[in-house]
Structure formats: structure tokens, C-alpha cells
Design a protein that fits this description.
The chain is mainly beta. About 5% of the residues lie in helices and about 40% in strands. A hairpin with a 2-residue loop joins strand 21 and strand 22.
């Protein structure tokens, strides 16, 4: 065999330059040591993580401080997502974001509650004028919490530029102790066309990963031919936490020449959906392991840097190739994977049958379907590459392939419900069916005459479902007719077992009151400190409506001095 000589590569060649960001401008938002449960741009479901998740000692209520002088430019309160979130714009053009808050402080809390009572809504988004809520550096702005989609008490913290692009906060001098090397859990090789193969197979192959004593890895030698791509499953751990967090940079080299780089230091929200094409989406959906493809694969992410030949390795017959992967965390702790492979063109290779159906589409071509009550049009540029789709219907159930192909756009799915009687029509909705049809999940459904429509960002199975069940409402911390003079909070539990809660409204003696809804605990909470004027004898009325319009009313008399 002939060998391509390996170039001598100096350490400086592998290093990646960092843009200059102010190092002393932003201070820590908390007065405790910064320990992370999540890092910037790590891989999440359908998005890159846009900030750092700071542990709050497994509790809520820690003081959150403004990282720098500025003004509150946005306040958003929602049941899901960021929960209670605060945005501060600074004179240098950056914006800091503080999310999953328990409550705001002082003037900010008063400002937001006034607006909530004016608009009679808990969920609200406001954009105060610069002079409305100015803040100084390290001023108390909020208290940490667990609101919205948070999986536990922590502070989600972001820094965004003047184009609303999130940037790794560690680039601004926030120090996190980390002397631990990134870990590699799996490496895969991908034959990328019909003539390519790895160890005589035309299908993806898991390579045998061998850990070395110095923290690096090697791969058991194997044979390959043609256009080959690689993928890696990797994670990082900081010194003071056990969480498996994301890495900062991945580079690859072919015979000493750099041919691919992923740089996780900044991205835009418009492109975060492309994470599903960066990872091996089918592999993730079947195994829950995220393998990052180290080749572009029709992806337009700005995270790609210095990509040569799309990151693909062309392996010729009788030629050996030395392929290296370098995985860095933010503190430049680096783990190397060394792969030596032999070019060997096999006369016969193992292949797996390719799905071929009547429904074939290219990225540029829309696809329209109508059968029975179901219709949809897949817009152009929904898929990243050509795909055969398995589409069929059975009664009101639609099979729109499997959820193993990532989408760039949402697909509108419509149902004609004219065959149903008037009573049923009002209670119908479109449901997304679980993998084994064990559960039907409400998909946001629009109604127009006899047509129901939903928009889906995932392929899978859909069906019509009926909901005649009313929501339930239960008092949690009081009884009807009770004196509540010493109570700070009024709490109820609400639930809907079928289509889910859509809205609620609470009044005392006919006056609207603010009740915070926590969907994780299914609780509604009113704070008597809001200052709603009460009588000695008070009538509480709560109306809860589900997603098809079923509603329940709870009424209770209570007394308070």
C-alpha cells in the first residue's frame, strides 16, 4: 500500500482564534459560585441552548442582579418556555436575559402587575421605554425560580448582541471552573453514496472506540472506500457538577489538513431548527443519543467554519488515511480521537433495501395529498434532501411517514369534518399519536367551518379525536366558608385529562384577580398582597376552559378581615 505522508502540525495550527469581547463589563448575575447545569449551544430538542443554566442550590428565591448598567427593555411572562423573563439592554449594545424567574423585584414587579391587572391577563409581553425602568450594575432585579419550561430551580442567563443573536456568556469573562476533558461516547462512519462502504457495508457503522490513559481515544482499524462521513457523540463536564453539558468546538483533520470545524460560540434563533440536520436525526429518534455529523449534509448553519469538501473524506483504494477529531470545551481542554483506516474497495458489499414509495419529493418540489377527509401540502424547501415518504390513511388516521426525517418548515394538515353531527363537530380536534398509538396528544387545532387544521413540525401519525370531558377544579389550601385572614396565598388545582387547559379566569366579587398558572404542578395561585380590595364576605369564581371549549366553574365563599 502507498501512504499519504502526514503533515507536521503544530499546536497553534489547531487552536481557534476568539473574537474580542469585553471581559470586565458584565458581572455575575448571582452572588454564589457559578456552577452550570447547562452550557451555551449544547444540543437540546429542536434547538441549541441559547445561554447558560446556573444552578441555584436546588432552591428558588436567590437574588438576581443586573450584570451591567442599562434599562429593562422587555418583560415576558408565559406559562411555558422562559416563564418569567427579564431583558436588560446595555449602553454597549448587548442585552442580557434572565429567565425562569420566581418574581421580579421592587419597581419592576409593580410595573408588570399593574399591566397584568389592566389587561386582565397573567401571560403578557411588554417593551418598556428606556426611561421607564433604568437599572444600575449589580442592582437587584429579580429572584431566581423554576417557572416556565424549567426542569428544576436554576437561572437561565443569556448575552445577546444588537442583532438578537445569543453569544456564549463565557466569552465575556464569566469564569467556570473546568479542568475536565470532554468525553466521547460513540463514533460512527457513514458511507455517503451507493458505491461507498465501511468494512464491506454500505450502511452506517459504529466504530470500536478505545479510550487511552491520557484521556484521548483511538479507533480499531477498519477498511473503507469512497465518500465517507463521520459522526461523534460527545459531552463535557465541569469540575463542580455532574451534568453532561455541551462542548464548544469540534475540528477534524485528514492527513494533517483541517477539513471541518463546528464552532459553538454564537448563532441566530432563525437557524436553531437546523440542529435536527446537524445531528443524525433518525439515530436520535430511535436511540435518544445525539450524534453530531462532522460533514455539512445540506445544512446552512453558521456554526460551520473552514469546511473543506463538505467535511467528507474521500477514501481511495490501497491508500491509508489518518483522520483526527479534536473536541474542545470552553477552557480549551481537548480530547483527540485518532482514526487510521485502510482504503480497500470490496468486490461485494452489504446493502440495506432503500424505501421506495409513490411519494417522492425533492427539496424544491411541493407535495400535495388528499385522501378521504385528510389533505395537506408539503411546501417547497421543507426537506433538506430527496426523500421517499410512506403516506397512507385509515379512516381518520393519517400516517405521514415516521418521525425520522427532519423538517425545515411546518406542514399544514387539514380534516374535513362535514360527516360528523353538530355535537361532535364542536368537540373534535386533531391529535398527534404516540409511537405505539397508546396516547393521543392535542395538536393546536384551528377551526374554519367544517375544516380543522393543524401545523406540524414533525412527521408521524395523526388522527381526529373527541373531547367531552370537562376540566376539574379543586381547592388546595382552603375550604369553602373558611376564614382566610392570615393567608398569603389562595391555591387551586386545575386539570384536563384529554385536550388540555386552554384558558382560565378568576374573580372575587366580580373583580378580576391575577392567578399564576404552573402547568408542571397544575396549580393556580393568587397572592393576597396584590392589594385587590376585598369585603369581609367574598365570593371566588374560577372558570377553566379546555382546548375544545368544555368549561367548568368553581365557586367558593370565604371570609377575610
Amino acid at each position: 500500500m502507498r501512504f499519504i505522508p502526514v503533515l507536521l502540525v503544530f499546536a497553534s495550527f489547531f487552536s481557534f482564534a476568539q473574537p474580542k469581547y469585553p471581559q470586565d463589563y458584565f458581572s455575575s448575575p448571582l452572588d454564589i459560585p457559578l456552577i452550570l447545569s447547562g452550557t451555551f449551544a449544547e444540543l437540546r430538542s429542536n434547538h441549541f441552548h441559547s445561554g447558560m443554566d446556573i444552578k441555584t442550590q436546588q432552591r428558588t428565591g436567590l437574588k438576581v442582579k443586573a450584570s451591567a448598567k442599562g434599562y429593562v427593555s422587555r418583560i415576558k411572562v408565559s406559562h411555558y418556555g422562559y416563564g418569567k423573563a427579564l431583558y436588560i439592554t446595555h449602553p454597549n449594545g448587548y442585552t442580557t436575559v434572565y429567565a425562569h424567574l420566581n418574581k421580579f423585584s421592587g419597581a419592576i414587579e409593580a410595573y408588570i402587575k399593574q399591566k397584568q391587572y389592566e389587561k386582565e391577563t397573567y401571560e403578557i409581553e411588554l417593551f418598556p421605554k428606556p426611561e421607564a425602568l433604568p437599572v444600575e450594575k449589580k442592582a437587584l432585579i429579580a429572584y431566581s425560580g423554576n417557572t416556565g419550561g424549567s426542569g428544576g430551580p436554576h437561572l437561565h442567563y443569556e448575552i445577546r448582541d444588537n442583532e438578537e443573536r445569543p453569544i456564549n456568556p463565557m466569552l465575556f469573562g464569566l469564569d467556570i471552573k473546568d479542568t475536565t476533558l470532554p468525553r466521547i461516547s460513540a463514533v460512527y462512519a457513514y458511507p455517503l453514496n451507493d458505491s461507498s462502504h465501511v468494512n464491506g457495508s454500505n450502511t452506517k457503522q459504529k466504530l470500536q472506540l478505545i479510550p487511552l490513559k491520557n484521556g484521548d481515544y483511538t479507533i480499531k482499524n477498519f477498511k473503507a472506500f469512497g465518500a465517507i462521513g463521520f459522526g461523534v457523540a460527545t459531552w463535557d463536564r465541569q469540575d463542580l457538577a455532574a451534568n453532561k453539558n455541551g462542548v464548544t468546538n469540534i475540528q477534524t483533520f485528514v492527513n494533517g489538513r483541517k477539513n471541518f470545524e463546528l464552532d459553538f460560540r454564537r448563532f441566530s434563533f432563525d437557524e436553531t431548527k437546523h440542529i435536527n440536520q446537524l445531528i443524525d436525526y433518525e439515530h436520535f429518534k430511535t436511540t435518544r443519543q445525539r450524534v453530531q455529523k462532522l460533514f455539512r449534509d445540506h445544512n446552512t448553519l453558521s456554526l460551520y467554519k473552514e469546511v473543506y469538501n463538505e467535511g467528507i473524506v474521500n477514501v481511495e483504494d490501497s491508500i491509508n488515511v489518518l483522520y483526527k477529531i479534536k473536541v474542545n470545551d470552553y477552557k480549551n481542554n481537548a480530547s483527540w480521537i485518532t482514526i487510521s483506516l485502510s482504503g480497500k474497495k470490496q468486490k461485494s458489499i452489504t446493502t440495506s433495501p432503500h424505501l421506495k414509495t409513490s411519494y417522492f419529493t425533492t427539496p424544491e418540489t411541493p407535495l400535495t395529498f388528499k385522501e378521504g377527509p385528510v389533505s395537506f401540502t408539503i411546501p417547497a424547501h421543507t426537506f433538506y434532501k430527496e426523500v421517499y415518504l410512506n403516506i397512507n390513511t385509515s379512516g381518520d388516521t393519517l400516517t405521514l411517514h415516521k418521525d425520522i426525517v427532519p423538517l425545515k418548515k411546518s406542514i399544514p394538515i387539514s380534516y374535513d369534518i362535514s360527516k360528523y353531527n353538530t355535537t361532535d363537530k364542536a368537540k373534535l380536534y386533531i391529535a398527534k399519536l404516540s409511537k405505539y398509538n397508546k396516547k393521543a396528544y392535542y395538536a393546536f387545532t384551528k377551526r374554519k367551518g367544517d375544516t380543522l387544521t393543524t401545523y406540524t413540525k414533525r412527521l408521524g401519525r395523526f388522527a381526529l379525536a373527541l373531547d367531552f370531558d370537562k376540566p376539574t377544579i379543586t381547592a388546595l389550601n382552603f375550604k369553602k366558608g373558611q376564614w382566610l385572614s392570615k393567608y398569603r396565598y389562595l391555591k387551586l388545582k386545575i386539570n384536563d385529562k384529554t385536550s388540555g387547559i386552554s384558558k382560565y379566569r378568576a374573580t372575587i366579587n366580580g373583580k378580576w384577580i391575577l392567578m399564576e398558572y404552573d402547568y408542571k404542578t397544575k396549580t393556580l395561585t393568587h397572592d393576597f398582597n396584590d392589594g385587590v380590595v376585598l369585603d369581609t364576605k367574598n365570593n371566588l369564581k374560577v372558570i377553566v376552559t379546555d382546548n375544545v371549549g368544555n368549561n367548568s366553574t368553581f365557586e367558593a365563599l370565604f371570609y377575610r378581615k
